[in-house]
Design goal:
Blueprint lengths: L2 E6 L5 E3 L2 E3 L4 E6 L3 E2 L4 E3 L4 E10 L6 E7 L2 E8 L6 E10 L4 E9 L11 E7 L2
Antiparallel strand pairs: 1-4, 1-12, 2-3, 5-6, 6-11, 7-10, 7-12, 8-9, 8-11
Main location: secreted
InterPro entries: C1q_dom (IPR001073), Cerebellin_Synaptic_Org (IPR050822), Tumour_necrosis_fac-like_dom (IPR008983)
Pfam family, one: C1q
């Protein structure tokens, strides 16, 4: 079984090979394995069908576009516009092979995140089959 939920912090975006990976250091819950805090990515421990969902908030007077990536390929996007603090969310069901990677990438704009324990950007996933 693999179930996890993490809170993310935009202030610490990882730049790996010119890719802005949304850094998610706050593990809210994890049962099983798969979440890699150091790289902010899910690495499938076993082959199967997984469900992923994420939500993010735009910073004041800015927009954002965040994509869910599977082995680097764009799967779905969420967008929040620049008219105040706007939420965007998206979900996907993916077939993963053991070792496949799933992560969030900031494509454009800026996310809002407080330095407190509030989590405005979250990322959750679990194995379905």
């Amino acid at each position: 079984m693999s179930v996890w939920s993490v809170s993310c912090c935009y202030y610490f975006v990882l730049v790996l090979a010119n890719v802005m990976v949304v850094f998610c250091p706050g593990v809210v819950q994890q049962v099983g394995t798969g979440w890699n805090t150091a790289t902010s990515e899910f690495l499938a421990p076993t082959t199967g069908v997984y469900f992923f969902t994420f939500a993010a908030m735009s910073d004041h007077n800015t927009h954002f576009r965040v994509s869910l990536r599977h082995n680097g390929a764009e799967v779905v996007n969420a967008y929040g516009d620049a008219t105040g603090y706007q939420m965007g969310s998206q979900s996907a069901v993916l077939y993963l092979n053991a070792g496949d990677s799933v992560y969030l990438q900031l494509e454009e704009g800026r996310l809002y995140d407080a330095t407190s324990t509030r989590a405005y950007t979250t990322f959750t996933g679990f194995k379905v089959l």
